[in-house]
Amino acid sequence: MTINNLCTTELMHLPSVKILLLKAALKKNRFYSQKNSEITLPIDKFYCDNVVFNESSYKRYHQVVNWDNNSEFMHPCYLHSLAFPLHLKLLLLPDFIFPLIGLIHVKNRIKQTRPIKKTEKLRVLSSFGKIETHPKGWLFSIKSEFFSDDNLVWQGVSSNLFRANHERTVATKDELSTDAFINSIGTIWQLDSSLGRRYAEVSGDFNPIHLSKWLAKLFGFKQHIAHGMWTKSNCVSALQKITPSLFEQAFEINTSFKRPVYLPSQVIMTTAHFGPESGAGNEQQFMVQGAGATTQQQPLHLIGNIGTI
Questions:
Q1: CATH number, residue 257
Q2: Whole-angstrom Cα distance, residue 39 to residue 138?
Q3: CB atoms within 10 A of CB 184
Q4: DSSP 3-state assignment of 218?
């Protein structure tokens, strides 16, 4: 792999999330003073050459997301949490003008070329991706890549929305359809009030909207909500039990986050085959929705798919 030293900062180790979150809380909002200017993203990159899996950390993560701790392989979403400090470093750059409070994680894509063993040592590189207008504001992405030697083994792209009135007309893009789930039977999940705090402890994402009802109310939520990446991670754990062969090869998981999952709550995960022939192959589509008795009480929280690449 080639590192461009002109725009890349090499780190000796992954930084402390708690220190970065404190800096994030103190960062000034520069967007509204520059909202009429052309918006660009910094070209800076952050690189760490020494990523070793900590046994205690990944075991606690695997426990919270219901991954088989006896497996020799890492949960695919665990690498997202390892890259999260680098995401924060990018968001804290002086040239990044959006405020950190209020950013919404709306999509996440993970590509993995092979199973990743718990004993591996990896390198990670994170940078901004593209920025585009969205019907509700500005949509930008952060890309992270993990390498084993010079081989790319994992790539994640997180798309985030900053709500703003940009006074531009933007066409709504096609989203994943729920048609494949007709007559499908789902699995009920009971989510307790402590889930947000437990996932924060293993992922490093201590956003206050996930920690308690009272903190979430300060940011406009009626109660605290589950992390979108916990919901995705738990879906991945369930899918691994349904079609383990998918995770033994190169695969891609695409996820769109819809409405928040309030805590505590009851939700339903449903799966369906997709592809050229319905019911054929390992490709799976999945969604999580509310477990209410009426359609109004069954909001769509997450929808995604996983398939070989």
A1: 3.10.129.10
A2: 9
A3: 15
A4: helix
Pair type for strands 265-273 and 187-191:
antiparallel
**How far is the C-alpha of 163 from the C-alpha of 86, rounded, in Å?**
23
Q: Is the pLDDT of residue 119 over 70?
A: yes
For residues 27 and 96, give the distance between their C-alpha atoms in angstroms, rounded to a whole number.
Answer: 11
Q: Please give the Cα distance from 170 to 94 (Å, whole number).
A: 28
Of 173, 203, 238, the last residue of a domain is 173
In this predicted structure, the answer to whether residue 192 has a pLDDT above a threshold of 80 is: yes
Whether the CB-CB separation of 299 and 290 falls below 8 Å is answered with: yes
CA distance 6 to 19: 26
What pTM was estimated for this model as a whole? 0.91
The answer to whether residues 207 and 221 touch, using CB atoms and an 8 Å cutoff, is no
Yes or no: say if 8 and 45 are a contact pair by the CB < 8 Å rule.
Answer: yes
SS3 at position 180 = helix
Name the nearest CA neighbour of 199 among 160, 240, 229: 229
Q: Are residues 203 and 146 in the same domain?
A: no
State residue 276's pLDDT score.
55
The per-residue pLDDT for range 217-244, each reduced to its tens digit, is: 988 899 999 999 999 999 999 999 988 9
Given a contact cutoff of 8 angstroms between Cβ atoms, the answer to whether 47 and 7 are in contact is no
Sign of CA dihedral 54, 59, 64, 67: positive
pLDDT at 99 over 50: yes
Q: How far apart are CA 77 and CA 282, in angstroms?
A: 20
